[in-house]
Design a protein that fits this description.
four-stranded mixed beta sheet; 10 helices
Length: about 325
């Protein structure tokens, strides 16, 4: 239930095709999304009194598959939408602004889900002025694994793609032309460096030998924009995985850390009022992820989180956290007025 930000029980309302939330008589009636019975089997509801037939998540699709061509691979669209909904639910839980293309046609958020056509132009997953394009072949596990290996990536998932690309969207929304721009440049580098040239150099020469000291991934070392997007994605990984563990009663209180915990000196702003809370959260996550990686290895699987956090990366994660806090405070202030 998007507007309630929770999973709820529904029962038929007096008006046909509408539903009410059980034990919540104060809530407006709901209706199923028009995509509920289509290939992707949407399970989000929409407010019955609002115009249109699609839920909020489906409304964000600027382009979507031709339903007549999905008889054999409808699971791909469903897998993509599941990952997209996890992304949107997390953004909502963080109270981040989700500016849609109906609100801002030039820079609002939208999704283009495209299937490559034999002999046609390649479909590249990416972001441009709020529009996130996803190559639907990424939903095919075998194809995605092949790409991951060809590019020598330790990790490649649909959710990871969405979290990375939404990072570009939020750079435009929360950093560009704001008080955060110069601090960003001081920490990540100057984004005005030629982007095409930087990516070409990355693919032809590879990352610098010391990339792991300063970046979360080799791709992050290619350009400040990609460093931000990769760091943003990992910030969302950290938040979602630890909050999920805590929600299920899991913690690492009795786990002996195999590495030195991060200290205030590793943060971007050690003097921030919530610096200690962030530090405790991050160190708790490091303990938990060590256990999770050990469990994965005990099952003969690669590490669930195959990355190492350096002090420079922690500073960048803290910077992203502060940008998010600032955005939430700004929205809360605006709501009061």
């Amino acid at each position: 239930m998007p507007h309630l930000r929770e999973l709820v029980a529904l029962e038929p309302a007096s008006k046909g095709g509408e539903y009410r939330v059980v034990d919540h008589d104060d809530q407006p009636t709901m209706a199923r999304c028009a995509n509920a019975n289509r290939a992707m089997a949407c399970n989000w509801m929409r407010l019955a009194h609002e115009p249109g037939s699609l839920c909020f998540a489906c409304q964000l699709n600027v382009e979507q598959p031709d339903l007549t061509e999905l008889e054999d691979d409808s699971g791909d669209w469903g897998a993509i939408e599941t990952a997209k909904r996890r992304l949107l639910a997390q953004l909502m839980s963080l109270d981040l602004p989700i500016v849609t293309r109906s609100e801002d046609p030039e820079h609002g958020l939208g999704f283009a889900l495209r299937r490559p056509v034999p002999g046609g132009e390649p479909v590249l997953t990416g972001h441009a002025s709020g529009l996130i394009t996803l190559n639907m072949d990424e939903a095919n596990d075998a194809r995605r694994e092949q790409i991951r290996r060809d590019l020598h990536e330790p990790y490649r998932t649909l959710l990871g793609h969405f979290r990375h690309e939404i990072g570009h969207f939020y750079w435009d929304q929360l950093v560009a032309n704001t008080q955060w721009l110069q601090p960003f440049r001081d920490l990540f580098g100057d984004e005005r460096a030629d982007y095409s040239e930087a990516l070409a150099r990355n693919y032809s020469e590879g990352p610098p030998s010391n990339w792991a000291e300063h970046h979360i991934s080799t791709y992050a070392s290619s350009h400040p924009w990609e460093d931000w997007a990769e760091t943003w994605a990992h910030y969302l990984h950290v938040l979602d995985s630890l909050t999920t563990a805590l929600a299920h009663g899991l913690d690492a209180k009795d786990v002996e850390m195999t590495r030195k915990p991060f200290t205030p000196e590793d943060l971007y702003d050690p003097g921030h009022p919530e610096a200690q809370a962030f530090l405790l959260f991050l160190n708790a996550w490091v303990e938990m992820i060590d256990v999770l990686n050990e469990l994965s290895q005990s099952l003969g699987q690669p590490d669930a989180y195959p990355f190492e956090l350096s002090s420079d990366v922690v500073r960048k994660l803290h910077f992203v956290h502060l940008v998010v806090l600032d955005a939430r405070e700004t929205l809360a202030t605006e709501a009061k007025h």
